[in-house]
Design brief:
Layout: E1 3-6, H1 13-23, H2 37-49, E2 60-67, E3 70-78, H3 83-89, E4 92-96, H4 105-119, E5 124-130, H5 134-142, E6 146-153, E7 156-164
Length: 168
């Protein structure tokens, strides 16, 4: 299995919209922007460049996880932490479509995301998951995540892990 992370393309629209709809019942917002597909891609490009960021947003790479030309999930790699991201959101958010789970894709996605952040000078990566998401906790721990604590903000309760980039 060779998984690559790449920016979304025009031909990803159907697959990524389907994943967005699949993950919505789990409370996960797969796509970070609304509008036409062209508008979504333009917003993704702006965020990757850190241009015209909405309040509370940081420079972020939204990348498609691709295996043999098939999108299997996505990651959001945030290059800095706002107070909200430091408490609840973390540097990396990821999701794998239900039909592609339990194949090691999430672990590969997180490892590659940590490497991207390391290349950008981040030494410790914060990754969070829902307190009851054992699968995600396992992925984070497999990538060297060390649990710092569990925090609640509003109706969100998250396990907070730090990954030392030198260990990945």
């Amino acid at each position: 299995m060779t998984l690559t992370l790449r920016p979304p393309r025009a031909d990803d629209e159907t697959a990524l919209l389907r994943m967005h709809d699949q993950l919505a019942p789990e409370g996960f917002t797969f796509l970070q922007h609304d509008g036409t597909w062209e508008q979504v891609l333009a917003a993704v490009r702006r965020e990757a460049l850190g241009q015209d960021l909405a309040p509370g947003r940081v420079r972020c790479d939204f990348l498609v996880a691709d295996v043999a030309g098939v999108p299997v999930g996505r990651v959001s790699v945030r290059h800095e932490l706002t107070p909200y991201l430091r408490e609840i959101g973390g540097h990396v958010g990821y999701a794998v479509a239900p039909e592609h789970r339990r194949r090691g894709y999430a672990t590969a996605m997180l490892r590659q995301s940590v490497a991207l952040l390391a290349d950008g000078g981040v030494e410790r990566v914060l990754v969070t998951c829902d307190v009851d998401n054992a699968a995600s906790a396992g992925v984070i721990e497999a990538c060297g995540g060390v649990l710092e604590d569990v925090r609640t903000r509003g109706d969100e309760t998250k396990r907070r892990y730090w990954i030392d980039v030198a260990t990945v």
